[in-house]
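Dear colleagues,

I hope this message finds you well. In preparation for our joint manuscript, I am sending the 3-isopropylmalate dehydrogenase (Durio zibethinus) sequence together with its predicted structure, so that both groups work from identical material. I would be grateful if you could confirm receipt.
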Amino acid sequence: MVSALKSSPSPKPSSNSLAPSKMPMGGAALDLTGVPLPEETLSAAQRADAILLGAIGGYKWDKNEKHLKPETGLLQLREGLKVFANLRPATVLPQLVDSSTLKKDVAEGVDLMVVRELTGGIYFGKPRGFGTNEKGEDIGFNTEVYATHEIDRIARIAFEIARKRRGQLCSVDKANVLEASMFWRKRVTAIASEYPDVELSHMYVDNAAMQLVRYPKQFDTIVTNNIFGDILSDEASMITGSIGMLPSASLGESGPGLFEPIHGSAPDIAGQDKANPLATILSAAMLLKYGLGEANAAKRIENAVLDTLNRGFRTGDIYSAGNKLVGCKEMGEEVLKSVGSSVAAAI
Ligand code: IPM
Ligand code: MG
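The corresponding structure tokens are as follows:
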């Protein structure tokens, strides 16, 4: 399901004038319309100011043909909105340091940002498909391909982000083996000359995967391709305690941004009121900040999440002894109370 936020045509839009509309996509759309991304959903999303996306997927549709999978709808939505830059922050909150599977001194203080290229690379490259090789054996194949403009624009976004953070950018590739990565490294290095204040380093993806669990504090901003970013951001999320904590923002040159948790729909616990809603709530905060330019409102939501954690509320994935175990609904209600009390405090 997609919530598309459209500002009212009022000359002085404020957060009160937002009227969100809900459109189906993924499994909900398959059940309703037979396709994972109906045209009406894509066009409503394209007309919106920002889009909040619920996690997609589920056993029910797992065996569908590829064009009828919820995941295909998600890729079509990202492509249709041209949101090529996916920002995935991974921050270890002091409140959750004990939920990390890493030792406290390794996890403590980690604050990194994965900038993942989202509309290119092996996810979209052609040729792709199934066929037979010269020996007549069945094969499946995909193509990792990046053009100059695709690398240059994601590199610029990453340099800009690194500049506003701690000024360090690590570009992750597999340039010891793959031509697409050799080219990636060449273009990122060329763009670096526009950002003399940012320190650029390069790392092979296998080493980066290892360094992320060995000494994650060495990373500030990471820029990488679509598939490596998919994998490394899941890995980075576990440093923070749970993938249920990580929001993301997907942005294009212009047009609305797409905001979604980095996790899937956790079908194994569907309907049990166990899921952690914080990644989705924090995605709404990113929507306010990056999508609508409402940084103060975003901060209020982030503070409400911290306040809720400070008050000891935990879903199962981030639970540790001495805290209060709650379900998805109650966690959401507690965050709402914290937002309410911060508003009251401000008045
Ligand atoms: C993600 C997800 C998606 C991806 C899937 C659901 C298509 O894993 O957003 O990281 O691979 O991009
Ligand atoms: Mg993923």
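For the figure legend, we might mention the following. The chain is about 40% helix and 20% strand. Residues 84-241 form a domain with the Isopropylmalate Dehydrogenase fold (CATH 3.40.718.10).

With kind regards,
E.M.
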